[in-house]
Design a protein that fits this description.
By secondary structure, this protein is an alpha/beta fold. The chain has helices spanning about 30-40, 55-60, 75-85, 105-115, 130-135, 180-185, 195-200, 205-210, 230-235, and strands spanning about 5-10, 25, 25-30, 45-50, 65-70, 90-95, 120-125, 140-145, 150-155, 170-180, 215. Strands 1, 4, 5, 6, 7, 8, 9, 10 and 11 form a 9-stranded mixed beta sheet that branches. Strands 2-3 form a two-stranded antiparallel sheet. Helix 3 (about 75-85) crosses helix 6 (about 180-185). The termini are far apart.
Amino acid sequence: MQYTAIIPARLKSERLKHKLLIEVGGKSILQHVYERVEKSQLFDRVIIATDSKRIVQHATNFAEDVRLTSKDHKSGTDRIAEIARKIRSEYIVNIQGDEPMIRPEHLKVIKESISQKDVKIASLCCSFKEEKHLNDPSNVKVVTDINGKALYFSRSVIPFPRRVVSLRNFKHHIGMYAFRRKTLLALSKLKPGTLEHFEGLEQLRWMENGYDIYMNKVASKTISIDTAEDLKRFKK
């Protein structure tokens, strides 16, 4: 069984221009991500998938496998699906290119999860640590059943707190996914549905079409570089 990690690397970014190419400590954000994934030694291959010739030129300085994809993809899932069609690999892990402090233990957990017999899509979550993060709509929340299967994702606070409860009761979704290759290719053919339209969350498209997403709880999330403030935190 082959395990492939694919890092979708889009050049354009809305809140922080060309963020994947920003250098911190002599390395770009993208290089930090790639080297951490490689260093984990959990995957048979690590591929960078990008829509930009500029990123191809940059990434070939440190990565063995960099592939140029269509500019028409609406999401990172579509981008990695294009690569998955061209390779032989039973399992595909989608790793965000803007998480330079990605942890090997997270990669290990999601790899072990997708390896289980009945799991076709796996992802990660952790407890919220601060109330301000819980109330921030940019932080996605997830509720699960007793077996860890996702019941719903939302930008709103779910479940609704009718009484005072601990932040530990709320799950913060971490946007890393692992797929069986056959499932990934099927997902890439689905059209957006009503729930995705409301929340702006691609995973709701999969759930609305009957696909189960198994969540795995980890101790904490890493820093995702979306804003200048995130970049400042990473530099510290």
